[in-house]
Amino acid sequence: MLSKKEKKLIKEIWERLTPVAEDIGSDALLRMFASYPGTKTYFSHLDISPGSAHLYSHGKKIVLAIAEGAKDISQLTVTLAPLQTLHAYQLRIDPTNFKLLSHCMLVTLACYLGEEFTPVAHAAIDKYLSAFAAVLSEKYR
Amino acid sequence: MVQWTDFERATIQDIFSKIDSAVVGPAALSRCLIVYPWTQRYFGSFGNLYNAAAITSNPKVAAHGKVVLAGLERAVKNMDDIKTTYKDLSALHSEKLHVDPDNFNLLADCLTIVIASQMGQAFTPDVQAAFQKFLAVVVASLRKQYH
């Protein structure tokens, strides 16, 4: 459950991260690959070594999608409809992995925002990313 | 037995030698109570946990945060046998405190976030992986005596 204040905070933070989407996204992915090697199995078709073009472009895609959803959280199901279909029928990433990426995204934000990543901001974004992941897996079955 | 690489061993020792445990312990525990409010169920006697500000300034939370970190420091000093080091602690959490062991992961995640925000870019993916491996061993050892 997200309060009005939290939705506003989430929107503001992801707006700020949009210009550095590549850096944030690739950092989160690299963290996920390092801590949870099983996640690399979904990327056998890409070059996911540190600094690779694939890593940056893929990380950027992910962060921009998260930022887009943050603009109007009440419309998440509408905004994510195409991505729901993609993940359910083509990518078929096991949803437990969404939690792993979400966690690494939070670590990236902590490193990037330092003290500004307050417990309140952490809670709000954790809740948002959980909701995002839940919507993303809605068409799975 | 857990195998630690030289990098992992050095990373863990380095992190714990640099942090101010009087700050990190309380920060991690209060963050856990704020981000995962249901964890407050174990702290009924701590008084005002009504909102983030109250939790952050609660002296009992701060004191307990230091206790938790002191416990972690024992694991850091005995990295090659955390299981034995934590035998009594595990029994305590199971038999006396009745803590659902899934909560250990929540606190571990909050500790990771606190360390990350302190270390910034120095908390690289490899450092994070080493730190999380250490916490995973800690959590597994704390779960060991549950039955």
TrEMBL record, chain A:
GO MF annotation: an example: haptoglobin binding
One Pfam family this sequence matches: Globin
GO annotation, biological process: hydrogen peroxide catabolic process
GO cellular component terms attached to this protein's record: blood microparticle; haptoglobin-hemoglobin complex; hemoglobin complex
Cell division among keywords: no
Keywords, comma-separated and alphabetical: Heme, Iron, Metal-binding, Oxygen transport, Transport
Keyword Cell inner membrane attributed: no
Occurrences of domain Globin (ranges): 1-141
Family indicated by similarity: Belongs to the globin family.
Official protein name in the record: Globin domain-containing protein
Native source species: Crenichthys baileyi (White River springfish)
TrEMBL record, chain B:
SUPFAM superfamilies: Globin-like
PROSITE patterns documented for this protein: GLOBIN
Domain of life the protein comes from: Eukaryota
Keyword Heme applies: yes
Gene3D superfamilies recorded: Globins
Family listed: Belongs to the globin family.
InterPro entries assigned: Globin, Globin-like_sf, Globin/Proto, Hemoglobin_b, Hemoglobin_oxygen_transport
GO BP: any one term: hydrogen peroxide catabolic process
Provenance organism: Crenichthys baileyi
Protein's UniProt name: Globin domain-containing protein
Single annotated GO MF: oxygen binding
Keywords assigned by UniProt, alphabetized: Heme, Iron, Metal-binding, Oxygen transport, Transport
Xref: Pfam families: Globin
Domain Globin: 3-147
Any GO CC annotation of this UniProt entry: hemoglobin complex
Magnesium found in the keyword field: no
